[in-house]
Amino acid sequence: MEFNLKIRSFRLRIALLSASLAGSALIGFGFASCLLIYKTKVDALDAEIKSQLLANNTRPPRFDNTLQKSTALLVVDRDGETLYQSNNWPSDLNSTILCSPQSELNCQPFPPPLPPRQQRQFLIPNQLPPLPPPMKLSQVSTKQTYQEVWRIGVITSPHHRLIIAISLSEIDREMSVIRNVFSIAVPIVLILVAIAAWWLSGTALQPIRKVTTTIRGVTVKGLSQRIPMGTTDVEFIELIGVFNQMMERLERSFQQASRFSGDAAHELKTPLAILQGELELALQKAEPASQLQQSLSNLINEVRRLSSIVRKLLLLSLADAGQMQLYQIDVDVSKILADLIEDIEILAPDLQVETNIAADLWVKADKDLLTQIIQNLISNAIKYNVPSGWLRIDCQHKNNLVYLTVTNSSQDISPQDKERLFERFYRGDLSHNRQIEGIGLGLSLSREIARAHNGDLQLDDTFIGETAFTLKLGFSTPSTLTPTPLS
Predict the structure, then answer these.
(1) Per-range mean pLDDT, top range of 4-18, 58-72, 153-167, 460-474
(2) CA dihedral in degrees (347, 348, 353, 356; nearest 10)?
(3) Which fold has domain 326-486?
(4) What is d(CA 398, CA 396) in angstroms, rounded to the nearest whole number?
(5) Paired residues of 485 in beta bridges
(6) What are the residue boundaries of the Histidine kinase domain, all occurrences included (predicted)?
(7) Segments in 205-332 forming alpha helices (H)
(8) Cα 188 to chain center, whole Å?
(9) Could you tell me what percentage of the chain is helix, strand and coil, using 3-state DSSP and rounding each to the nearest 5?
(10) Domains 234-320 and 326-486 fall in the same CATH topology
(11) Which of 290, 316, 390, 416 is deepest in the core (most CB within 10 A)?
(12) What are the residue boundaries of the structural domains of the chain, listed by start?
């Protein structure tokens, strides 16, 4: 299985990318700076070594206090005998090795000796003899011993050879301090860069948040929302313009569809009522128990079914348009349930019914529409039950809400059907439901009515072999105010 490492957050990608680029630049800059600083220090040290070698004093070369401790001197004659050696001269460095043909120092050969009258001998032990001209200076190079790295310079006169070795340990310590400063400063700078990039990307994405907020607020009553472009960045003007145009088209299309469905349902009511009346009149004139009477009876049932569909479609169109008229009053849900439970005993005498209903469960609702929701839930629980099944009704008051749960034994519902139960005209397995009365609008209409009351209707997670729906409405304390219609 392929492992996807793609980061889904755009802001996080911007912050990480900025930190990566800044980190690469800082690391490259730090590495180059360290090399340049090190080279500068070594070049300055080489210049100091050459300057002291060419001074040709009768005393040891003088360096600053820092270099004085790490400087070693060695003076040898033409025969390689040591005339002077400082106490800190490394034991594994000697003139033979340093000035061998294989050495990097490339020591200059001794010039011809001076005439005896020009020779001055200073053979006092541990004293640095002067170097008479002519003198030849070798190239300064690096030599590593067992413990340290030395920078070595050599000057050669006719009778002596002066070798200066300076340890690079002090420079290494200074470079170590610089590297430690970089190692601490770079992470801090990267964190600051990431925070700044996160803030800047969030500021840059502010127009996207406006679009998201507007889209989240798009409902039936919010299709008229638009995003102003007066203060929008140039880069987002086209995006917001396209979004506003889309909202205009969506609002216009929705209004047309809602108006069509509402007008169609309203126009069908009158012809269906006339047709039903004519069929009932013809049914009364037909001979009892005749084939015509049976046909007319079937036609009346179908007309009533069509009338029911038209009424539901009209309610749905009003709900879609946000124009469902609610005549809200104080309604006792407990009393409505008590009346409907008596009907269950008539409709399904073999069904085992359990109830757990608290008393005085008042809600502010349209009584007829609320009764329609509860009737639809109970009717579905009866129709889709199993032989010798059971039905449980639970209604309680909790957290200033009234919860009505209708649970029944049933066949298992597939996950695909659960996701589509509230779709209009969806009835699940058609072959299984052919003999079950219904058109697939009850649950959809019930949820729209519940939401019009600022409540909700949802399918609960249950055990296998159970189905449960929960209606949630706001609890209301009964008042003596005269009810007024609300929309």
Answers:
(1) 460-474
(2) -20
(3) Heat Shock Protein 90 (3.30.565)
(4) 6
(5) 327
(6) 263-477
(7) 206-216, 234-285, 291-320
(8) 24
(9) 50, 15, 35
(10) no
(11) 316
(12) 1-112+124-204, 234-320, 326-486
What kind and span of H or E run contains 188?
Answer: helix 169-204
User: How far is C-alpha 246 from the geometric centre of its chain's CA atoms?
Assistant: 27
| Percent of the chain at pLDDT exceeding 90 | 7
How many alpha carbons fall within 13 Å on the CB side of residue 84?
23
Q: What is the pLDDT of residue 36?
A: 92
What is the distance in angstroms between the CA of the first residue and the CA of the last residue of the chain?
54
3-state DSSP of 93-142:
CCHHHHCCCCCCCCCCCCCCCCCHHHCCCCCCCCCCCCCCCCCEECCCEE
Are the C-beta atoms of 160 and 76 separated by less than 8 Å?
Answer: yes
**Looking at the domain 234-320, which fold is it?**
Helix Hairpins (1.10.287)
Q: What is the DSSP letter of 163?
A: E
Instruction: Tell me which amino acid residue 390 is.
Output: W
pLDDT average, residue stretch 330-354: 86
CA pair distance 446, 458, nearest whole angstrom: 10
Strand partners, 475: 363
**Mutual angle of helices 10-55 and 169-204, in 10-degree steps:** 160
| CA torsion angle 180 182 183 187 (round to 10) | 150
**Identity of the residue numbered 194:** A
Q: How far apart are CA 306 and CA 295, in angstroms?
A: 17
Q: Residue 65: which region, alpha, beta or left (left: phi > 0; alpha: psi -120 to 50)? A: alpha
pTM attached to this predicted model: 0.48
CB-CB contact of 107 with 100 (8 Å): no
